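Hey, I'm writing a tutorial for new members on how sequence and structure tokens pair up, and I'd like a real worked example in the thread rather than a made-up one. If someone can provide the structure for the chain below, I'll link this post from the tutorial.
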Amino acid sequence: MTENEKKGIGKKIIVGVIVVVAIAVVMFIPMIPIEEAYSETEPYERDCTYVVDDWDLTEEWSLSLGFYVQSDVTVRNTDQYGGTFQVVHKLNDIHGLFGTVTDSFSLGAGGSHTSTATFDTRMGQDTLGTYSVTAPIVIDEQLVTKYRTVYKSIVELLIYR
């Protein structure tokens, strides 16, 4: 074997080693982007759930007050959390808004409360009542699916798919 043949074999071995290393690098180094889904718990704000079990608007009379209109709103908290609820009672007559009464109260989970407002009126005064309920805001948690890009090697894709 001549010196040139030995150099040729040496070059072929070096090229072969370089090719094997390059193939190993391509096969094992994570460089292929893959989008994967994962779940995470996140907090979010929402209104506490409730129902209005009853609303009653009646014209009453008493010795101490005379004629008056009474508004009764019964609110039941149907949520697992409690908080401060607010009921706004409004009474209108033929001239427009006659009066407003705001009542705030705390209600635990499953609790119920009757909010009462009294409006001093005249006998036979034509009135129309309305109400609105504002529930407390609670912070709850929800499971959300998110996506992220991870890099995988060809070997990982072939073995773990």
